[in-house]
Input
Amino acid sequence: MSKQVFVVGGNHHNILGVMRSLGEKGVNSYVIIETKDKNPYVAKSRYIKQCWIVENEPIVLEVLRAEAGKHGDKPVIIACADNLSSLLDMHYDELSQSYSLPGSKRQGRVTELMDKEVMSKFASDVGFRVPLSIATDISKCDDDISIPLPWIIKPLMSKNGLKSDIERIYTIDDWNNYKSRHATSVQVQQLIDKDFEYQLIGLSLDSGSKVLIPGISHVIRPAATTNTGFLHFENLDTRYEPIVEKCKKFLRKAGYSGLFSMEFLRGKDGNDYFMEINFRNDGNAICVTAAGVNLPYIWYMSHLKSTIDIESFRQVRPVYVMPEFADVSLIRHGQLNIFTWIKDICRTDRYMEYDKKDPKPFWLLLGDFLKKFIFHK
Output
């Protein structure tokens, strides 16, 4: 018995990592890529069975509706972008008749929890320490924000914003400048003086009754507005057990099934702070596959077997993973020493883009990267 898989996402290494994780297990994917790019590099993967390149969410929905019932018993869906996780969630009642979906059994629940203020309150209720924050509409707000500077500003709903909308604010002048360039609802959050960032990437089954978090990723070289950076993934140790238990409580309370990641900061005060949860495959999740636990494939297999023994996936091989193009950009802008980078290449176990078994996406992306570098676009 087998099922088909639909992977939905953007022109990004996130969706590429899912296709490769499944492909390495002999499962090729039906892929819907939402992008304005007419020639997306991820569409060159060898692990694609059929591909649709579409410009917006409504067309993604049209494709899923048109393909419903054509591929045997309910195909499994994996989402690789916030807006598409929300799309599946907001049409859960309809799409769940034809597909095996991630999400909560109550339509709209996941989208509710994507609101960062709702998310922060929810996290606090299950016992996480959460930075002080408020939600505000920039077009209507004044400067009477009681949270002490510095702040980090994020779109209130990730699905409606861009990474470039995330900024650190150190002075009121910074805030006024930000407001002059944006007109949207945001979360104003206390900026924690951090020691390091880490992620728990995992899989929730049966509405949170079974949760697999096989290890922890430490972001060695974090970027200002994203968690994509050179990282080390390793086994969890007992120090993180209280955090893991709260993660499980969060997922049970949300009733969520599917791939996820949770992001945390260890403050210089020694405390761990919950930052956010992603109700989708994480862009860094290829590190878990590289470590020996193939989460997309386990999600797929959970729809073929009545039971999954998650305890059998606890041991991982420590690995280093590099987002090579992001690192080259850091070198170009003088933010990374090339000798440090070469040393890191020597200990890298997996790359976000390059894969010798699936090289075509890398070469197309490299060509685009070089064009931008040469012509400064």
The CA atoms of residues 151 and 190 lie 5 Å apart. The chain has three domains: 5-101, 132-190, 194-322. The longest helix spans residues 360-375.
